[in-house]
């Protein structure tokens, strides 16, 4: 899902850089305003490093394709939408700057797909569904988050001249393929969140919030 | 918090990350074997779009120039995870605002 250089028209690339900068600015403002508990700082670092390492694992899929875990939902559920977004911004930026994975001109767009759409969509889905069943909530969050992120990649490329402005082709290709591959993302998300929920529920953003607001009756 | 305490307190998470880095060369070989291709590449092929790389990165494509690929992948994974950890710790410290 990492768009390389040369795929996007410059106006599209610039527009996404601007949108991403605005959202990241809002995230930083919200984080500063709400404050982060000292104990959550190492967790934020480890989540980002863990997502980087997990993205190294390319799952081969018979038939000549492969996909890797992206992790926006995991970041969102553990760290919340704002710090989760910043964690994904760190991962995706390092991938581009150190490893050449994703273009420099396309970085704003790639961040918008993976650090903004993938994180915020997953967060709100998880928030809406977790009161019914946290496992289903985590699965749907991972699955839909990555699929919509991929659709954004389809929109950005489909509005560019190198893709012949064929948005009606790029969006279905990205949406359908990642909609299928996203099932793996959903399953990995469930495995990680279910494990943390069982062993270290205290580090999850949503259960933290619920406890802080003493909204009991959950569980 | 010093480095030793950090590792001690979070040894499970550190271990999981290490295991992922250690097995990553196997996944890289497996993906190569089936012909790694993401949906975005399919879309690009279909419409004749071509990349025009302007920057390859310091460790291009998760490899270390001049080092055999499985070892290179391992080193790239290790370096990347450590850099990500340090950057995210630094960024979080910088923006964390007042404590709750």
UniProtKB/TrEMBL annotation, chain A:
* One BP term from GO: transition metal ion transport
Q: Which domain of life is it from?
A: Archaea
Residues passing through the membrane, by range: 12-31, 43-61, 73-98, 104-124, 136-156, 176-196
Instruction: Tell whether RNA-binding is among the UniProt keywords.
Output: no
Give start-end of the signal peptide.
none
Q: Which UniProt keywords apply?
A: Cell membrane, Membrane, Transmembrane, Transmembrane helix, Transport
The UniProt entry, under Gene3D superfamilies, shows: 1.10.1760.20
* Gene Ontology cellular-component terms listed: plasma membrane
- Where does it reside? Cell membrane
What is the protein's membrane topology class? Multi-pass membrane protein
Q: What is this protein called?
A: Cobalt transport protein CbiM
Native species of this protein? Candidatus Methanofastidiosum methylothiophilum
Source lineage:
Archaea, Methanobacteriati, Methanobacteriota, Stenosarchaea group, Candidatus Methanofastidiosia
TrEMBL record, chain B:
- The answer, when asked if Membrane is one of the entry's keywords, is yes
Q: Which residues form the PDGLE domain?
A: 32-96
Name-wise, this protein is: Cobalt transport protein CbiN
Name the UniProt key words of this record, in alphabetical order: Cell membrane, Membrane, Transmembrane, Transmembrane helix
Q: Where are the transmembrane segments?
A: 71-95
A GO cellular component annotation in the UniProt record: plasma membrane
Intracellular or extracellular location(s): Cell membrane
Work out whether the entry's keyword set contains Cell membrane.
yes
Pfam families, per this entry? PDGLE
List the source organism: Candidatus Methanofastidiosum methylothiophilum
């Amino acid at each position: 899902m990492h768009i390389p250089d040369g795929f996007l028209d410059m106006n599209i690339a610039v527009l996404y850089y601007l949108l991403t900068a605005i959202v990241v600015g809002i995230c930083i403002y919200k984080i500063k305003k709400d404050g982060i508990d000292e104990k959550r700082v190492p967790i934020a670092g480890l989540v980002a490093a863990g997502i980087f390492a997990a993205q190294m694992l390319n799952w081969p899929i018979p038939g000549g394709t492969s996909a890797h875990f992206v992790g926006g939902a995991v970041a969102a559920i553990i760290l919340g939408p704002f710090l989760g977004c910043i964690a994904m911004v760190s991962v995706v930026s390092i991938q581009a700057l150190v490893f050449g994975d994703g273009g420099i001109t396309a970085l704003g767009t790639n961040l918008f797909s993976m650090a903004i759409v993938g994180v915020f969509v997953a967060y709100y889905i998880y928030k809406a569904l977790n009161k019914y069943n946290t496992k289903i909530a985590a699965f749907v969050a991972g699955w839909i988050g990555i699929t919509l992120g991929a659709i954004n990649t389809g929109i950005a490329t489909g509005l560019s001249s190198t893709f012949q402005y064929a948005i009606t082709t790029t969006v279905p290709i990205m949406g359908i393929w990642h909609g299928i591959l996203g099932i793996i993302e959903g399953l990995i998300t469930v495995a990680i969140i279910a494990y943390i929920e069982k062993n270290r529920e205290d580090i999850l953003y949503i259960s933290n919030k619920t406890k802080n607001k003493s909204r009991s009756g959950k569980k | 918090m010093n480095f030793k305490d950090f590792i001690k307190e979070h040894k499970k998470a550190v271990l999981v990350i290490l295991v992922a880095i250690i097995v990553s060369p196997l996944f890289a070989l497996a993906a190569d074997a089936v012909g790694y291709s993401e949906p975005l590449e399919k879309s690009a092929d279909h419409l004749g779009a071509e990349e025009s790389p302007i920057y390859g990165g310091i460790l291009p494509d998760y490899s270390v120039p001049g080092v055999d690929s499985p070892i290179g992948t391992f080193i790239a994974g290790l370096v990347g995870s450590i850099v990500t950890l340090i950057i995210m710790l630094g960024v979080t410290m910088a923006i964390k605002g007042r404590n709750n």
